[in-house]
Design goal:
Number of domains: 1
Shape: elongated
CATH class: Alpha Beta
Radius of gyration: 20 Å
Strand order of the largest sheet: 3-4-5
Distance between the termini: 62 Å
Helix content: 40-55%
CATH architecture: 2-Layer Sandwich
Strand content: 15-25%
Low-confidence stretches: 1-19
Mean pLDDT: 81
Largest sheet: 3 strands, mixed
Number of helices: 6
Length: 130
């Protein structure tokens, strides 16, 4: 019976979710949600609010990855004091390393075309639904 239990634990620990590797039985998104709660409970309100806007997290090669396209969030989370607080929160869930990753915004062809039209026509361009 203990071999069966070990096998289940091993499968659980090596399970992969849609957002990457798992840390134990917790998915990266679950860990991130718990980190946000930790920040609130420790009265780190500005960091709590900023992190609440981030949903793109994963674990790759044992490193917890926090991804954003926003310069402000990237700079905020990369600051030494905030990194220290985030690491404390992540340590609670067995995470020892993390990276803040600045993702590039990828525009679709239609978004690129719309930007060109806005540049060319400026205020004269009226777009319904915007």
């Amino acid at each position: 019976m203990s071999e069966y239990k070990t096998m289940i634990t091993t499968l659980s620990n090596s399970a992969k979710g849609e957002t990457g590797e798992r840390s134990g039985a917790l998915s990266p998104r679950t860990i991130w949600g718990k980190v946000i709660i930790y920040l609130r409970e420790h009265h780190l309100i500005a960091l709590h609010i900023a992190c609440g806007d981030i949903t793109d997290v994963s674990i790759n090669n044992g490193v917890f990855e926090i991804k954003t396209t926003e310069n402000f969030l990237y700079e905020l989370l990369s600051g030494p004091e905030n990194r220290k607080e985030l690491l404390k929160a992540l340590n609670t869930y067995g995470i020892e390393k993390f990276e803040v990753i600045k993702k590039e915004v990828v525009l679709t062809d239609s978004q690129k075309d719309l930007m060109k039209l806005k540049e060319y026509f400026g205020d004269k361009l009226i777009i319904e639904g915007e």
